[in-house]
Amino acid sequence: MISRYHLTQTTLVGGTLWAGMLLLLWIISQLLVWQDKQEQQSEFSEFLTEVEIMLNEHGLEHLLQEFELDEDVIWSDTEARAHLLDDGWLVSIYEQDKLLFGANTELSAATSAQWQSVSLGEEGDTELLSARLDLPDNLHVHYWQKRDDMHAQKAEFYEQLSGWFALLSLPFILAVIVWLQLKRTRPLQDLSAQLEKVAHSPDSKRTEASTSHPDIVALSLAINQMLDEITRLHGNMKTMSVGIAHDLKTPLSRISNRLQSMYQDLDDTAALEGHIDKASSELAQVINTFNNLVRLNAIESGKHIQGFKTFDLSALLDELAQSYLPVFEDSGRRFDVSIVPSVHCHGDRDLLGQLICNLLENALEHSHELSHVWLRLQSHTDSALLQVGDDGPGIPQGDQHKVFDKFYRADISRGRPGNGLGLSIVRAICDVHKAQLCLLEQQPGAVFNIEIPTRSARRD
Amino acid sequence: MHILLVEDDPDTADFICAGLAQHNARVQHCDNAEQAMLSASATPFDVIIFDRLLPNMDGLDAVRVLRASKVKTPIIMLTALSDTADRVAGLEAGADDYLVKPFAFAELYARLKALARRQPLRADTQELFLGELTLNRTSRQVIRAGQEIELMPKEYQILEYMMQNPEQLITKTMLLEQVWGFSFDPKTSLVQTHVSRLRNKLDKPFAFDMIKTIRGSGYLLTGQSDD
């Protein structure tokens, strides 16, 4: 259930979080302790100021009363420390260097109110505030105050709290993270399980997110989109292979027949030559199909794009129209040409030449004798509009969206020569030139409109 | 013709050698680029036939090396790669012609003859003669037996190309490449239509046909009557 990866992640994340929280807790407790000490320190300073005022106003007697010290009382170091522990404070009053009253102790006193750490033997360490007051008549008062018990307890409490927190929070945090990870991993595991099933029937099954987590839902949708695209490509490939098989079957079976006939006519040279000629032309058709497939692939790969140049499209069309005019005339069709001069475009001259040839050949092949075929070129603001049309029988209504598919042929029989790749090549050429290609609907005959962008041509 | 054939596929090599032997051409065959480059530098061949895909070395690189070492023998490349870009790459590397496999032997032979003959014809030759036919490349005037013939631009280009390669087979593909600049094969009778129109003007009014059809292969321009 939990992989090594998840374990490492959990430990790393949980550990960092735990350490971070612990550090934060420590900083807060230190701040609170520091605040308490500051408070006590300022109270201590105020008290010293009061002592000074009292001495000045009422004299030493009053001060001794205030400290509840008997005259001449002098505590030894041990007594002094015991007093400090019990009452929380200690005083020594000196005249010059001679101790008059109070503690005869080795504890030092800072010149102004300051904290110091002192070891009190068995009682352990404690912190003291100490200060020295220099008074007139060479009087010095040394005063110590133990840290407020309440504050010390608070500090101790904070330490204990941190300790317990450190001890208890680590497993808690780890548990929470593990739970979160499991919660997040489960839909992903579900998704992988579904994908394993999809692999067996990629055309029909799709994934479904078992959670409302938006990321997982988006992932599931993206996977479904990808599967749809794969299904589409897979379908294309099937059509392609079926198309290739169909396209090759007819000429190959004819060649096979011819080869058998050649055996029969081995002695008849004239018949033999006839068979060889027919077989060769059938083979030429097979090779032509492959050449067209290879060319189609090359065009679709877009490798021609880097060789794009700006050239005179009108001139190219003129030349092709001149070339095809006799072909249309000889086949008994009327061929009208109307080309706006000096239209330039950016592209591959050879490819656009083939595009026009394929459309003209298509018109020639699929129109009847005496029909009318036309080639037009108009110039628009950002594009050139090329139209190749005929008033022949056109393409059946339901098939119009299929005409550019590979191996589509209006006549199912495949009896006529050609391989149904001509218009696929036209579409591929339009795609690499970012040209819009459409077959006009609701028109008698087949009319192809191609809008070739010319903006980039003018910029060159 | 003395020909160097560089081809690693034994079947194709046999096919070409057998065909060339029928035309009494002398053929030296080698199946790798290294040996081919040594032979090409040592012997003055009329034409070299170079396969594009050879073991250890791209034929294109071999041709580049040959051209760099001043071997000027015409080279025709054979290749399974039919795309225009590959064709351009081949010609840029220094090959003189490019033929896509599979091909008819007649196509290869026609191209070999055209290449072998290419050297004597200078680009600035103004007038071409063949029998009673004269073609002026500056004025684009065509005269047969003292009679001027008006030709359309494509018809003129076809005739000009045929006159540069007289008495030789010229295939449909060669015309498509040379006259139209097409690297693809249109399905229809584009070439046939134009040649037939050219014939109507060039041959019909005269005593004999100069343009002969070689069945299944192409055309041939001849200066003499068969009789």
Automatic annotation (TrEMBL), chain A:
GO terms for molecular function: phosphorelay sensor kinase activity. This is histidine kinase. Its main location: membrane. Residues 243-456 form the Histidine kinase domain. The keyword Transmembrane applies. It catalyses: ATP + protein L-histidine = ADP + protein N-phospho-L-histidine. Its EC number is 2.7.13.3. The chain crosses the membrane at residues 12-34, 161-182. It is found in: Membrane. Residues 182-235 form the HAMP domain. The lineage of its organism: Bacteria, Pseudomonadati, Pseudomonadota, Gammaproteobacteria, Alteromonadales. Keywords: Kinase, Membrane, Phosphoprotein, Transferase, Transmembrane, Transmembrane helix, Two-component regulatory system. One of its GO terms (cellular component) is plasma membrane. It holds the Pfam family HATPase_c.
UniProtKB/TrEMBL annotation, chain B:
Signal peptide: none annotated. GO terms for biological process: regulation of DNA-templated transcription. Residues 2-116 form the Response regulatory domain. The modification 4-aspartylphosphate is found at residue 51. Residues 125-223 bind DNA. It comes from the Bacteria. This is DNA-binding response regulator. It comes from Pseudoalteromonas rubra.
